[in-house]
Specification:
single chain; about 130 residues; mainly alpha; Tetracycline Repressor, domain 2
């Protein structure tokens, strides 16, 4: 939802509401994790981590890849350079502009998100084979 409506992102994250539908989704995910052998407390830790990661990543992607006045992220390098230059203060040193270009301009958001999920899964695998610990 955040990526479909990036201008609404501040509203989505500033509401202190847990709608019934959202709680039902969390309940279903929690059931999957506990059936897989996670203790309830650990399953809640894992669920919280994944949900917050997904929300945070969607917010970052909306910030770095689109804005209300300029539309979707450009595919060509020149377009990316222009977009990043608009986000960086004019007086930023050249090396920081270069860093912004590398950090924001050459990112495949889907691959980056998958990397994060993979790293979380690998971290869980390192728990001595006991997901409930």
């Amino acid at each position: 939802m955040i990526l479909r409506h990036p201008a609404a992102a501040p509203l989505l994250v500033s509401r202190r509401v847990m709608p019934t539908r959202r709680l039902e989704q969390l309940d279903a995910y929690l059931a999957v994790l506990t059936r897989a052998g996670f203790a309830e407390d650990r399953a809640l830790d894992v669920l919280r981590t994944v949900v917050l990661y997904a929300h945070g990543y969607a917010l970052a992607e909306a910030c770095f890849t689109a804005c209300a006045r300029c539309g979707p992220w450009p595919e060509d390098e020149l377009g990316q350079m222009r977009r990043v230059a608009e986000m960086v203060p004019r007086d930023a040193p050249d090396h920081l502009l270069r860093l912004a270009l590398l950090f924001c301009g050459r990112c495949n958001a889907d691959e980056q998100f998958s990397l994060g999920v993979d790293l979380m899964i690998r971290g869980l695998d390192g728990e001595d084979g006991e997901p409930g610990r």
